[in-house]
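Service request form, structural biology core

Requester: graduate student, group of Dr. S.
Request type: structure prediction, single chain
Budget code: on file
Notes: please return the result as structure tokens.

Sequence provided:
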Amino acid sequence: MPPLDTRYQAALQLSVVGDSLGFKNGDWSNCSSGLQIFDELEKLGGVNNLNIKLPEWTVSSYTLLRLHTACILTCEQYQKVTGELIIRAAQQCKSSANCWDMKDRNPDQTFMAAREKLNPINVRGSCVPFDPNGISSAAAVRGMCIGLRHPNPAELHDLIKVSIDFGRIFTQQDTLALWLLHYLHHMHYRRYLSDNGGMD
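Core staff response, request fulfilled:
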């Protein structure tokens, strides 16, 4: 079996291709008609004849957040979740969003407002204040890259901790934080089953 980093990279690459297809430069991200998307896809020659690449096919803002989180969990000397890691993650979230043309990828307004509130000079400033009206998937969409990074049952404690701490960077609602926790646990167990022959 290939090492964890190789499998992790392959999973993220597949997710990027899938997101690029579903996003279609923003044309399909807010389309509520599956039939319309299917018809347009057929006019493009069908999914088997598509060539997913830039500049015709870009990724959404959520995939950028997922890749950002994956970079933090792979490029840094990451073993345990520490205050320093959370501060660094929040700093990169705040500084890199403009470099990645986030505003041109239809991010939700709750995410953009939360990003402006970040003041990552310490751990407290790396977490946005609670917002009872906040509605955003910015935290939950990062669950895949977190859950896949901790596939072993022995890492469950670290998985829970990183989900809470990373979720608080952009999650303003307790319900949304639980969504992140649920999703990354799902990915954690799928990865564990896959690695141990429990899934086809």
